Amino acid sequence: MQYRTMRSTGDDLSVLGAGAMRLPGKRGGIDEQRARTQLYRLIDAGVNYIDTAWAYHAGASEPFLGRILTGTYRDRVHIATKLPYWMVDTRADMDRLLDIQLDRLKTDCIDYYLIHNIGGASWEKMLTLGLVDFMEKAKQSARVRHLGFSSHVGTEDFKAVVDGYDWQFCQLQYNYLDEFAQAGTEGLEYAASKGLGIIIMEPLRGGMLTGLPEHIAEPFDKLGGSYASYGFRWLAEKPGIMTVLSGMNELSQVEENIEIFTDPQPLTDAEHAAVKEVERNILAANKVPCTRCAYCQPCPKEIDIPRIFRVWNERALERNPEPISPELINQAKACIKCRKCERVCPQSIIITDELQRFVKENT
Question: I want to staple 196 with a disulfide (CB 3.0 to 4.6 A). Which of 68, 117, 191, 305 is the partner?
Fold first, then answer.
């Protein structure tokens, strides 16, 4: 396993990190036996950074990790989790939520603590409520080792957060499809220039970059190699990136990722050209930039927004799509435009408009 030293913390972190947002599921929950097997395999292979959050798996991710990361397994990993700013109304809420997370994770200290998806108005709100005081005291009390933030905002709002505190690290969405989306390359390089360690989320766009149809991925097919390997190697060669989080939910993905990150090779000129061509092909075909994170769920009208967008995108990409059924169309029609989903969408998708467009195009 390849490691990089985050200068701001002094920790040697595995370049492959385990994301706990997309653990294998079973009957609407986590398939704990499979998830445990996969995470232990990753740790035994040298992965030492595991990322979770309060909201992942409808609140089940942190408690699950608390149950399985005991003894030597806890000693061998850095646990990262996040303060859910949307649940904070007072300064006291911050301490209350952190204490609950420590209990859920069955640890007395969280190694890497992030303010979750912060930026713009949410950043200003948290500052007003006493965020800086909370962070300083959480670190002084040894409940938190290192402080950072995750964000899905645009470049300028991202830079404002970088400049707003003496952070040690940050986490941003980045992949070959998102060089100019959200913080983008400019934001990544800015954070790195300020000495922040960089953690990457959504390296394969929620898995979308791994299941490309032949007419989209033809440039990769001509060269050989898995689609995932192109996305991961493209990231691994970027300066400043410490760890790339992968949301693995199959043992085959675990094994492939271990192999890739044991010694990730820089892309050749031909491979770089293939990545750019595949990127152009995807952008020309894709309907909506949904990563199926499910932050928009539950919907008050029980609309399965991630499923609707997945089916719509997969049909556009001709990727063995599920049919666009009357059920999905009726779900989209049921939208009452409350915009609750839009307030939490990390991709800033105007979901109500896209649901209307989905109905119009498919009726």
Answer: 191
